[in-house]
C-alpha cells in the first residue's frame, strides 16, 4: 500500500518492471548497474506494498494497482472485530446521576442501556445527560430510560461488519459511537462498541501499514 513515499530508485525499478516485466531481479540490477543485493530491500518493499508481484523462475511483474486501489483493498480487510472496544453498559433503572458518575469513572462518552439479559434497550450520550441536567429534575431519582434514545431507533453493528461501513454510519447519523451486537432470540446482546476513536485507530494502522 502506498502510504510511504517511494524513493527515486524504487520509482525507477517500478518503471523498469512496468515496461519489461516479467523481469528477474538480476536483470533489473543489471539495468541499474547495481548488485542484486543492493536492490533486495527495494524489491522487498515494492512487493510487500503490493506494487510488484514475484513468481519463482519468472521474475517480477507489475500488479497494475495504483496506491488508491491498494489502500481500498486494505480498507476492505478491516472488520469491526479487529478494532472494537469493550462496551460500558448500565441497567435501565439506574438514575441519570448514576449514569453521569459511570460515564466519568469509565471514561467513555456513550453508555449503552441494557435489560436484565444484557440486551440493548437504549443509548445515553453526553448531551443526553447534559440536557437532563439543565432542568429542575432531581437527577438521583430520574431514571435513564426516560431520557435515553431507545430501540428500535438505535444504530448498531455486528462484529463481522466492515469498519468502513460503520464509519459511514457514524457520519451519516451524526453519532459518536455504535454498539456491537450479537443477535439472539432475546434481542441484541451488547458485545462491544465502535467509536470515532476506533475509526481513528484503524486509520493510523493503515498509514503504519499494519493491515
Ligand atoms: P453527543 O450527544 O455527546 O453529541 P452523539 O452525537 O453520539 O453524542 O449523540 C447524539 C444523539 O444521538 C444523542 O441523543 C444520542 O442518544 C443519540 N445516539 C448516540 N448513539 C446512537 C446510536 N448508535 N444510535 C442511535 N442514536 C444514537
Explain this structure to me?
This protein is α+β, with helices and mostly antiparallel strands. The chain has 2 domains: about 10-65, Arc Repressor Mutant, subunit A, CATH 1.10.10; about 80-205, CBS-domain (Roll). Helices cover about 40% and strands about 20% of the residues. The protein has helices at about 10-20, 25-30, 35-50, 65-75, 80-85, 95-105, 125-135, 165-175, 195-205, and strands at about 50-55, 60, 90, 110-115, 120-125, 150, 175-185, 185-195. The strands form 3 sheets. A 4-stranded mixed sheet has the order 3-4-5-6. A two-stranded antiparallel ribbon has the order 1-2. α2 (about 25-30) packs across α3 (about 35-50) and α6 (about 95-105) packs antiparallel against α7. Adenosine-5'-diphosphate binds near residues 110, 126 and 174. Adenosine-5'-diphosphate (ADP) binds near residues 109, 123, 154, 176 and 177.
Order of helices and strands: HHHEEHHEHEEHEHEEH
Overall pLDDT, averaged? 92
Q: Percent helix among the residues? A: 40-55%
CATH class of the largest domain: Alpha Beta
Amino acid at each position: 500500500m502506498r502510504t510511504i513515499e517511494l524513493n527515486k530508485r524504487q520509482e525507477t525499478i517500478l518503471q523498469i518492471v512496468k515496461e519489461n516485466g516479467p523481469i528477474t531481479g538480476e536483470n533489473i540490477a543489471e539495468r541499474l548497474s547495481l548488485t542484486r543485493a543492493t536492490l533486495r530491500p527495494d524489491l522487498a518493499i515494492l512487493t510487500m506494498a503490493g506494487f510488484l508481484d514475484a513468481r519463482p523462475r519468472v521474475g517480477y511483474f507489475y500488479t497494475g494497482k495504483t496506491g488508491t486501489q491498494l489502500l481500498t483493498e486494505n480498507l476492505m480487510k478491516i472488520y469491526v472485530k479487529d478494532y472494537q472496544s469493550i462496551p460500558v453498559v448500565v441497567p435501565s433503572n439506574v438514575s441519570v446521576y448514576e449514569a453521569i458518575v459511570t460515564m466519568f469513572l469509565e471514561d467513555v462518552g456513550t453508555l449503552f442501556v441494557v435489560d436484565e439479559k444484557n440486551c440493548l434497550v437504549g443509548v445515553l450520550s453526553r448531551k443526553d445527560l447534559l440536557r437532563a441536567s439543565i432542568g429542575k429534575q432531581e437527577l438521583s431519582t430520574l431514571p435513564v430510560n426516560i431520557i435515553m434514545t431507545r430501540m428500535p431507533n438505535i444504530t448498531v453493528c455486528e462484529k463481522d461488519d466492515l469498519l468502513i461501513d460503520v464509519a459511514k454510519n457514524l457520519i451519516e447519523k451524526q453519532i459518536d459511537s455504535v454498539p456491537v451486537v450479537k443477535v439472539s432470540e432475546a434481542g441484541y446482546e451488547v458485545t462491544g462498541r465502535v467509536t470515532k476513536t476506533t475509526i481513528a485507530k484503524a486509520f493510523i494502522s493503515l498509514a503504519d501499514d499494519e493491515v
